[in-house]
Amino acid sequence: MQQISNAVRQIALIALLCLVGGAPAWALPGAIAAVGASGVGAAPAVLSLNDAVAQLKQMQVAQDKIKQQAATASTGKELDDLAAATQDLSADVDKLRSQLLPERAQTQAQLDVLGPAPASGTAPGSQAVARQRDTLTARKTQIDTILKMAEDQRDHLANLTDQFAKLHRNLLKNELALRSDGIFSAVFWIPVFRRSPEDIQRLGTFAGQVDAMLEAAWQPGQRGTTVLLIGAALLIWIGGRLLLERAFAWVCLHRLPATRLRRSALAFSNAIATLFATGIAVQILFLALARHYELNPALDGLWDDLVKLTLTCALIAGLGRALLCCRHPTWRLPALADPLALALRPFPGILAALLFVSGALESINRMVDTSVSVTLLGRGIVSLVIALTVGAALLRANHVRGELAASGEAPESHSTIAGLIHAGVALAVIASLIALAIGYITVARFITYELVWFEIVLCSIYVLTRLTRDVSEALFSANLSTGKQLKTLLGLDDRHLEQARTVTSGLGTSLLMLVAVVALLTGGFGTTPGDLFNSLVAIAGGQKLQSMLNIRPDRIVNAVIVFAVGLYLLRAVRRWLDYELIPALGMDAGMHASLIALFKNIGYVLLVLITLSILGVRWDSLAWIVSALSVGIGFGLQEIVKNFVSGLILLTERPVKVGDMISIAGVEGDIRRINVRATEIQLTDRSTMIVPNSQLISQNVRNVTMGDSTQGVATLALTLPLDTDPEQVRELLLDVYREHPSILETPAPSVTFSQLTPEGMMLSVTGYVASPRIASATKSDLLFVILKRLRAEQISLSNPRMLMVQNMPAKDV
């Protein structure tokens, strides 16, 4: 019966195909063959499946390219363009799906006509129908796969569009040029009383996640553990910090040498103790609240932000306690008066608490993605509170200093840098308050956050710099055990230890200064100085001004900051070389001045090149400038360039150096300074002659004091009558030379019978002095004494002559 049923079904199918296709009855075998070849009643395909797959691959490549561009997008226009491209790509995916859906429906209809596959059968044409069914099934499966791929791409593109919208909102919130209502406007405070439904829904979702986490930690059987963990966190945060501070203080007082290292180590240990205890307490608190709840990515990112923020606030509080040190004024690192330290004592803790609240609000708003008005409200309140707190600290400090001055007590000593920092902080507070009043909330937020970051970096570098210097001094001190062990182990003397101390301290301080510069330039809370300048330009003239001037504000600001900081570091390193390192190395004055001048010239050149590089100057685009300079050098600048190169040769080869006594073109004097273009020579009459550097290279120069073993020579030539006893005169001259205190015993003075002429006999007497600079004065003294002795011995001179002072190498005896 089953075989009969299958045969009947096959015959009915063939008849239906004949009716649909309009084929005569005698063409039944051909109709069956057509079914096997092209499908039952199949219409020509609208879209090739291979073409659809190729289009999907192209769309995926385009989607990946959009994602790459989104990673570097920094302006709202770029995000809008990427969002528009995403929308176009999503429309192409929908078009492809609309083309594939009829194909799938038609294929399914053809399968419905064929019906399910029989269990077995031998009816005529059954094999052809089976092949056709398999072909249609495979085509349907392929179409379903392509549709699934298109559906996934559409979902990804939808998510990407939502991300672009979120990025655009965040960019708008962080746009410094965005102006809203000021804090004195009622519109600014509307979100306090009325929130949008979107904000209520998002905050409600966030609150639900937090409630679920707390319920997981407070469920029956876990409450005791949660309470114990929270109690342990509080105990470590308060009691653990105190124990660590006392332990570090005991180590500093009983294990460190009685030097300034104790104070700097105490300040550093107090800050580290607060930071370490807070970090452990935060981790225990995380275990207490989230040990039985799996955080989603948003909550996990929020927790990471809160941990970093907590450690930052702990560092602020620790640095404040370490620097003020109100309980032990003798341990205080900076030179602050006790009333001033007591007056400033509560402000670091208040600032840390306010910063924690502001950072937490920022993180929650960023995670929840609240509206612009709510975000600006939170930032405005936080900026106002921080500005008022810092301003109150400044006013309190000024008031205490005024009271100290009125009572006759001397306040703490002020340096120029400290005064500039104080004035800069005051100006920042005033600027933030003005920005809040006129509606630039994000500018105020930037100023207050960067002000706090500047204070963190400044205080940290101050403590670390003092610690580095004190460690170097204690480590290489010849009076302490470490220095004595180094001397014994390495065979050093006190001079070598002093050099090692200077080099170690200088290198450590320089590295810390570089770290501080990098930290200040990168910014601590997300906004860089370039963003501020860019926004100020936009506020003043908009994009039209930028395009008209063709400026890059971020590069200009970075170049100005790098040039200013580089100039300060260059001068600081120069002072360190001039007053610490080179004197510790025991170099002579000439080498000292040459190294300082060479360092200054090379440093300025490198600083200018670095500044131009940061500005984005392309050297290949300056070919016309180089050509113009070449022409100028060939004509007007030739002498300047020649003198500049000659100055570099003088500083490197050192044929003459500062302090040398030279003679050039009949002029003799001491070199006082070698500049880039010319050299200053001080003459015997205290006047100064400016000699171009090229003359010292191209002309014959007599260096009187060149070499470490040169001595001055005082030679006198006397012409005596022929009847004079030369032996008597010889002994007289030698006695006079030996009696003079400036004449050296080695080499010994000598008398030479130079010449015998009809006018008389010539005797030359020579004596050595310690320096050519005293030879002239010594010669004058000798002439006074010799003439007096000759007259006493009744010996006359027939033709007295005196030789010029000569510079002769010392003779080995």
Give me the secondary-structure topology.
Layout: H1 2-21, H2 28-38, H3 49-72, H4 76-114, H5 126-174, H6 190-193, H7 197-217, H8 223-255, H9 261-290, H10 297-324, H11 338-344, H12 346-368, H13 372-406, H14 416-438, H15 441-475, H16 481-490, H17 494-522, H18 529-549, H19 553-585, H20 589-615, H21 623-634, H22 638-653, E1 661-664, E2 667-674, E3 678-683, E4 688-692, H23 693-698, E5 702-703, E6 710-720, H24 726-739, E7 750-757, E8 760-769, H25 775-792, E9 801-802, E10 806-809
Antiparallel strand pairs: 1-2, 1-5, 2-3, 3-4, 6-8, 6-9, 6-10, 7-8
Helix pairs in contact: 2-5, 3-4, 3-5, 4-5, 8-9, 9-10, 9-15, 10-12, 10-15, 11-13, 12-13, 13-14, 13-15, 14-15, 15-17, 17-19, 18-19, 19-20, 24-25
What does this structure look like?
Residues 1-27 form the signal peptide. InterPro entries: DUF3772, LSM_dom_sf, MS_channel_1st, MS_channel_C, MscS-like_channel, MscS_beta-dom_sf, MscS_channel_2nd, MscS_channel_C_sf. This is Mechanosensitive ion channel protein. It is a multi-pass membrane protein. The chain crosses the membrane at residues 226-244, 265-286, 336-356, 376-395, 416-440, 446-465, 505-526, 556-573, 594-615, 621-641. This protein is an alpha+beta fold. The protein has five domains: 2-174, no CATH class; 197-527, no CATH class; 561-629, no CATH class; 642-703, SH3 type barrels, CATH 2.30.30; 710-809, Alpha-Beta Plaits (2-Layer Sandwich), CATH 3.30.70. It is 70% helix and 7% strand. The protein is built from 25 helices and ten strands. It has helices at 2-21, 28-38, 49-72, 76-114, 126-174, 190-193, 197-217, 223-255, 261-290, 297-324, 338-344, 346-368, 372-406, 416-438, 441-475, 481-490, 494-522, 529-549, 553-585, 589-615, 623-634, 638-653, 693-698, 726-739, 775-792, and strands at residues 661-664, 667-674, 678-683, 688-692, 702-703, 710-720, 750-757, 760-769, 801-802, 806-809. The strands form two sheets. A five-stranded antiparallel β-sheet has the order 4-3-2-1-5. Helix 15 runs antiparallel to helix 17 and helix 17 runs antiparallel to helix 19 (553-585). The longest helix has 49 residues, at 126-174. The termini are far apart. The model is unreliable at 1-46, 526-551 and 800-813 (pLDDT under 50).
